[in-house]
Amino acid sequence: MHREVPAGKGFADIVFVPRNGVTTPAMIIELKYNQFAETAKEQAKNRNYADFFKNYKGDILLAGINYSKDDPNKKHTCRIEKIKK
Predict the structure, then answer these.
(1) CA proximity to 23, closest of 57, 67, 50
(2) Is residue 31 within 8 Å of 67, Cβ to Cβ?
(3) Which residue, of 31, 40, 79, 80, has the fewest CB within 10 Å?
(4) Each residue of 20-68: pLDDT tens digit?
């Protein structure tokens, strides 16, 4: 796990890099506060954060997560998209 990773045209909040020989996908997580999970995911796509894995041969998951402060239930939302290489 790596935090604030220079990737594409910005910094990915959290990046999970699989160990060698592991077949699980790599993951990029973009976090938002009082916005939308879809906005976070689209930011990761539009700023090409997946370029961090340009030499990685497996799939990549982009996850956008939003925390809503004003929600009385402290609700989190998440949107995930798989990028096949």
Answers:
(1) 57
(2) yes
(3) 80
(4) 888 889 999 999 988 999 999 999 999 999 998 888 888 999 999 999 8
Q: Could you tell me where the DSSP H helices lie in 1-85? A: 37-46
Separation between Cα atoms, residue 69 and residue 50, nearest integer Å: 29
C-beta separation of 78 from 48 below 8 A: no
Question: What phi and psi values does residue 41 have, to the nearest 5 degrees?
Answer: -65, -45
Q: 3-class SS at 6?
A: strand
Average pLDDT over residues 6-30: 89
CA triplet 22, 50, 81: central angle to 5 degrees? Answer: 80
Nearest alpha carbon to residue 62 among 27, 11, 37 = 27
Using only the alpha carbons of the chain, give its radius of gyration: 13
The rounded distance, in Å, linking the Cα atoms of 15 and 23 is: 16
pTM above 0.85, yes or no: no
